[in-house]
Amino acid sequence: MLNSIYWAIDPVIFSIGPFEVRWYGVAYVLGFICYAAIMYRTAKRWKITFTFDALLEMLICVMVGVILGARLGHVIFYGGGYYLSHPAEIFAFSQGGMSFHGGLIGGVLGLFVCSRLIKMPLLTLGDLSAIGAPIGLFFGRCANFINGELWGAPTDLPWGVMFGGEAGMIMRHPSQLYEAILEGIVIFLVLYILSRKYPPYCRGTFAGVFMVLYAIFRCAVEFIRIPEPQIGYLYGDWLTTGMVLSVPVLIAGICFLIYAHRTKRPQEGQAVLPEE
């Protein structure tokens, strides 16, 4: 069934001359829209003041940070030296190539700038962002599936997909959809359920949970996901660049959780209820 769906969807939605609208670009747009909407509703539920202008400034800062960071992350982490001899293609976004870990760094820098502009603590913005970000990851991984990239190892399971091209005419794990479910749906549900508590958990909790779960799920899927050919395995036939880059994310997530537990600082704007 998945194989039939894959071959039925064209990565290009429509084109007018040289102009193309691709599912990958639409995924980014939908991801940012849902991200902003979830942040706004969560902030309102937490009784945090978040004006529309502040939300727009935050969204612009994060979009610029994520897109530039994701592209530069791909160039640095997965370029394999290619861009040293082809510097003009570093910002050739139409050729594809975006890195989550680079996007995470760029997003954090964007939130840092935003926190100074709208006078809101960085960790509060980080926690709100962590709740909305998984939906963007879900759309992005679905777009990876449609593009037939980042495919998995060969499989004889009934949901295997024949991606063709460099993947060959053999059934493979749809590792993109595994990540869409784990990094997108599962992490979102966990964080959304946690966000329903009022007063909300202390600053750093949601960012910490997001990072820990992402690192665990990413490493798990990497065992069946074929690494980029220009990089290959870093050790044996199992250690990948994605695993190595996820270790700092895991450590940072644990540090955030420890910080939240020890400091117990309330989310900014939160009217703290008196202890019973």
Which terms summarize this structure?
276 residues; mainly alpha; two-stranded antiparallel ribbon; two-stranded antiparallel sheet; 9 helices; globular; disordered C terminus
Structure, explained:
By secondary structure, this protein is mainly α. The chain has helices at residues 2-8, 23-45, 52-78, 82-85, 100-118, 122-147, 175-195, 205-222, 241-263; strands at residues 12-16, 19-22, 161-162, 171-172. A hairpin with a 2-residue loop joins strand 1 and strand 2 (19-22). Helix 6 runs parallel beside helix 8 (205-222). The longest helix is centred in the N-terminal third of the chain and has 27 residues, at 52-78.
Draw up the topology in text.
Layout: H1 2-8, E1 12-16, E2 19-22, H2 23-45, H3 52-78, H4 82-85, H5 100-118, H6 122-147, E3 161-162, E4 171-172, H7 175-195, H8 205-222, H9 241-263
Antiparallel strand pairs: 1-2, 3-4
Short description:
With 276 residues, the protein is mostly helical. It has helices at residues 2-8, 23-45, 52-78, 82-85, 100-118, 122-147, 175-195, 205-222, 241-263; strands spanning 12-16, 19-22, 161-162, 171-172. Helix 2 (23-45) runs antiparallel to helix 6 (122-147).
